[in-house]
Design brief:
single chain; mainly alpha
Amino acid sequence: MGIAVVIIGIVMLAVTLIAMMKKSTRGGLGAWLAEKPLRIWWLPFLMLAYYSIVSIAVDQWGFNQFALLAAYFGVPTLLLYLTGPKSDETFTGRDLVINFAVALWIWLLIELKIVDTNWLRVQIGSTRPTALPLGVYAAVIYTLIALSGWRRFDLKCDLSFKKSDLLPTAATFGVLSVTLLLITLSTGLTTWGIAKVVSPNPLGLPMAMAIPVAILVAVPMIFVSIGVVEEILFRGAIQNLLRHRLHPIGALVIASVVFGLAHVNKRALGFDVPNWPYAGVATIAGLGYGFVFWKTNSIMASATLHAMVDTMWVLFLRGGK
């Protein structure tokens, strides 16, 4: 019964995230919240209710985690309530500060591991327990509603990918993949090798077929689990906010540096934290993602590029230290 509740909860979270990707949905919800500003407190209440329901279902509810999440969602909600909803889409310096404060609070507390994104660990059958990063998607949903609905800031994250987006996405992938390969392989940060997830080849396919199958599986999985989430926050929120006050190139560079620094806590390339080589590589990748977002105004385009680069990284490059 508990697993069934969790599965239903995951589906509801996914449907909510997809719905919030539509600007019209966020705008309508924001207008409803703005009718009575106290309604903004529904956001942390619903997040805490969701956490409590799914965690109680599998006997993993904890008071410390509940209190931490109450502060995590409650602090930015207090800021939003005190500063009030936006009635139009004009953008001032004050709006920049407020929106930045919300975006950085939501992301940095996750990145610095102050807030655990893995709300649950579930085991199905004889498999090892799987961590469910429900907190990441809850945080993104909160950000979408808070910034785009309540604050009326266009995050450019509708579910749209135009034909005209194909060329800059593909061309940037070519340039970015060659650049990353040259830098990491020549410096010894990585070595070329097929990932273990491909080489066992449980389907018994020839390697010439197993590799394309692995790519076709990995790209959509990374797109959903990492690409969309990080692109909404770093490109849709941070880079988009910066370009209201800076030249697009300045916004691109600063957002990419922030993106790189956000990866300094990652154990990769054979380095422990703080992982400055990985932060540098991530900054270069961020320049590519941000460039595509700048040229297409599409989160879907930058998230697609993000997923393609990460797939190359996961399947074919190993930390070389």
